[in-house]
What does this fold into?
Amino acid sequence: MHAAERQWNGEPRRPVFIQGDAHRLPVADGSVDVVFNLESALHYADKDAFLSECRRVLKPTGTLCLGDITTTRSRLFAPLTLLNGLPSQFNTNIYLWSCADYKAAFERHGFEMTVHEDASAPVARSLAGGIAEVKQRGWRASKGFRGRTALLALIEHLLRKRHLAYDLFRATPRA
Ligand SMILES: C[S@@+](CC[C@H](N)C(=O)[O-])C[C@H]1O[C@@H](n2cnc3c(N)ncnc32)[C@H](O)[C@@H]1O
It folds into this structure.
């Protein structure tokens, strides 16, 4: 948050940054126009609590825009969830839902899903482009972010194999 605030230092009109847990949003009921959540909900242990909070804070005319990495191969990724029970250095903090899980949860929490787009292919292409650029610059130039590059290469592979997907949703509160 401090980095975000620093970026706006000296600007006459600045956004307000509030830090909090997605499972308990520190925001008043019915006060929000848009909840924009990108590649973050995969880390929330209780996505139902998060979606219930989104429904609570959104105005009746509000919109939830959510992009997340999902899977239909829950057994393949079950070991990741098991690691979450271990001490923090081994904890992946990854709890993957499927697209169908999200659609059912929107229904449960009083949302109407108005848009769904499977963006797996363009996201994989974009990752492949970034990884190719890193390779072109050479291994030496990637010092400091090699681990992250390897992780992104793995995600690109899993997206291409359809073991992972990248889903974009728009949902609005049901009247
Ligand atoms: C993969 S990053 C995505 C960040 C950003 N949305 C982006 O696209 O660059 C996931 C973010 O979720 C945050 N996060 C994880 N669990 C959270 C929680 N329970 N409440 C609030 N933020 C959380 C992490 O701190 C991290 O900044």
The chain has six helices and four strands. The beta strands are 32-38, 58-70, 111-118, 165-173.
